[in-house]
Amino acid sequence: MTKKIFLLLLTGFLTFFHAQEEKDLLSIPNPIEYDGTEFFLTRAKQRSKTLFQQQYIPKDEEIENFNQIIDFSFFNKEIDMELAVRQKVEMVQQRQKEDKIAKVNVTENPDGTEYIVDFYISETPEKGDPFVEYNIYRFKSFDKGGEKSFLMLSYAKRIYGDIKSAAKSLAKQRDHLMTAMIEYKIPDIKVPATPVK
């Protein structure tokens, strides 16, 4: 069951609906500051006994057609980080068959305790404007007093309109956006002692 939820999370896109007054589940300050922008909690959900997910967007944005979004997907258990990375890479590689923009890169930090997977995808929905989305996933394992946990912290930025020009614009921003993710100090995450209903 957990494996199915994990795979669903890795292959799915950010499809939560806009919610009002969400209750924080991870003890993360709200709003959070990221790359000079304030992001406000817009969705918080316990998706299984071990998976807690929270999403943040800038003020005045809607989650259905966001420009920027941050996602904390926290597993209150040990997860195989290399497997998680591989599954995310394979998801993008599958898209490459139909999405000419799709491209993926993997970066490992010097001591091997974190990985970053960054990638581009494009979408042309039946309703709404086409867009290119640049995603950065930061994978990190924790071990506090023998209690192991795992975090997928992700940031996505979309540019709507002409696909080619949007892709070029995001490509120019890649170095800056990668640096912002690498330098971001992950807050101390704490989950509820009892399951959230």
Number of helices: 3
User: Unreliable stretches, pLDDT < 50, 5 or more residues?
Assistant: 1-8, 10-20
Q: What is the strand content?
A: 35-45%
Rg from C-alpha positions?
16 Å
**Oligomerization status of the protein chains:** single chain
What is the helix fraction of residues, given as a range?
10-25%
The H/E string reads HEEEEHEEEEH
Number of domains: 1
What's the overall geometry? globular
Distance separating the two termini? 18 Å
Query: What does the average pLDDT come to?
Result: 88
Going by helix content, strand content and strand pairing, the class is: alpha+beta
Largest sheet: 8 strands, antiparallel
Strand order of the largest sheet: 1-2-3-4-8-7-6-5
Number of DSSP strand runs: 8
